[in-house]
Amino acid sequence: MCCNSKRRFLLLYATQKGQAKAIAEEIWQQAGAHGLEADMHCISEMDKYNLETEKDPVVIVISTTGTGDPPDTARKFVKKIQDTTLPPDHFAHLQYGLLGLGDSEYMFFCNGGKTVDRRLQELGAQHFYDTGLADDCVGLELVVDPWIDGLWLALKEALPLQKEKEGMDNVVNAVTSSPSPAPRVVHELNLNSEVQNLKLGDEGARSSDVLSQKPDDINSMAPARNTEPSLINSIPPVSQSALNIPALPPEYIEVQFQGTHGENPHLSSLISEETTFEVPVTKAVQLTREDAIKTALLLELDISDTVFNFQPGDAFCVICPNNANEVEELLHILGLSEKGDDFVCVKVKQGTKKKGASRPQHIPERSTLKFILTWCLEIRAVPKKAFLRALVECTSDAGEKRRLQELCSRQGASDYMRFIRESNVCFLDLLHAFPSCKPSLNLLIEHLPKLQARSYSVSSSNLYQPGKLCFVFNIVEFPACPARPISRKGVCTGWLAELAAPLLHPNKNTLDTKGESFSTEKISIFPRQNNTFHLPADPSVPFMMVGPGTGISPFIGFLQHRQKLREQHTDWQFGETWLFFGCRHQDRDYLFKQLRCFLENGTLTHLKVCFSRDSSTAEVAPPKYVQDVIRLYAKEVARVLLEEKGYFYVCGDKKHMADGVSDAVVDILSMETEADRLEAMKILAMLREEKRYLQDVWS
User: Fold this and answer.
1) pLDDT tens digits for range 353-375
2) For the chain, N or C: smaller number of CB within 10 Å?
């Protein structure tokens, strides 16, 4: 607990990938400049705080993971407050402000924060500051920065009120048997992703000016200007503005080189809670023609020697490395080419000012430098503003230093969005763009996030192919742009494509004695079970599947499984099955033409396909997209969902497909039930609640 003369508030964070923690640390860091002390804890550390007896204001920063779940670190907390035996005034003494993090590309936006916020309200807690919901789809900072700016004034107003309320509580019995509640001040914010709509008082805005660039210094630091802004070039008004830039994050990591003797940790040690399996890649098939816009591959893994269990509809994660050439390039730029195979010891820097500093869990205490850059750090991550701020101090050229200051400043927010976030600029791109920037190794470890394992849907059935696990993916391509002079492939899909190359293009070295191609390559995987995206437990229940492009992947597993069940249980009754599939061109990227086999043997009852880029000579143009096809079968959709209590599955891209499918279903429900659109939306919400309208979507 904090015990100095500064006024205290409790600061809790619940994080999955580190963003909520980083934002909480920024709040903690800024608090001192406002005469406040943040008592900061991870929300899982329930032995270090007690909301039941908390008298000071509480600030909560919480992210969302999975399909709208609170992060893993918040599970015990959420379970505790959702205890139905708690009285409605359990937290009546509590004042709090909550900042939720989410991504509007996913259906349950900020649901982790909303869940906690709603439950605290139900238990009598009161807002001293309006809830903020930050959207990673457009940039968290568009809401986070002004939310933090306004927080200080709200806290200063809440703290005297809290003391006043305590005083009133102490004398209330002597005054009246039915006291009036203490006045509650809520510092209001109209928080959304449009900066111009943010309502901030001048005092609150000024309170966040941690560091300002003096106007007198601007001309001496500004580089020669072009008329068009870019990653390395700015124009007025940004180029002529005094800048509000964040405070410099304190360094907290120390790296010691220890020679070349030792052994790197096993990859399984990078995964904290899951069992990993190292399995061989036994088969690769290119599902698209060479002239298709995207290249789709199917890989088969041999899991026969493992205890890896899955159901059709489950997903699994692949532990992947960064691109080897990019790692070597990074070592070269950092001047560490000769040190890549040296072992390093990573420790917390003695005397650091960072509260609760610890070695990041994804960084081994001892390993080679190349191991850390290859397997531990996401070197392709879009740099956050705190990282840019730290890079300013490592940059010797005055013009480059000024531009980095602009990009991390409030005045340069739109430039940051346009030239870094939307352009998908990574750390390596920044080092090329700002050649005088020479960061230390400890800075990379402090600011680059964990290299996340990549998730893929299972595209097979263990009944149909025992001991095998298949999955399908497009090779992700990032084309060259002004901020990135070379094109790149996705970190994981590019690596998998390289592993698959010997199987796709065999030569005499990759053929076995039977003339069949084989591979000795292995990949590390771990399960990620999906609790809901499975076949109906009752096989007689009908279901519909919508999966354009690689969204068809889990439905291949569904159909394989259903085919085997039909063969093994001839006395069972099976419901009808529908599949809506779409792609650009019938002859280039129709991924599974063998769908006809499922249709012919009765596993699949109805197959409806569309091709968005194929031309047609028909008098009435055929539908282009799956949502258009679904509308043609409105009565059947309504019958399956409403009369027969069937299931509806959607897999694929959210923004360009899944939202369109949801709209189509709402329109169908409205038309077929003769209800208005709002009522139809309620019906769809009910179907989601009953787990009969299920989505597995990505952005």
Assistant:
1) 887 788 988 999 999 999 999 99
2) N
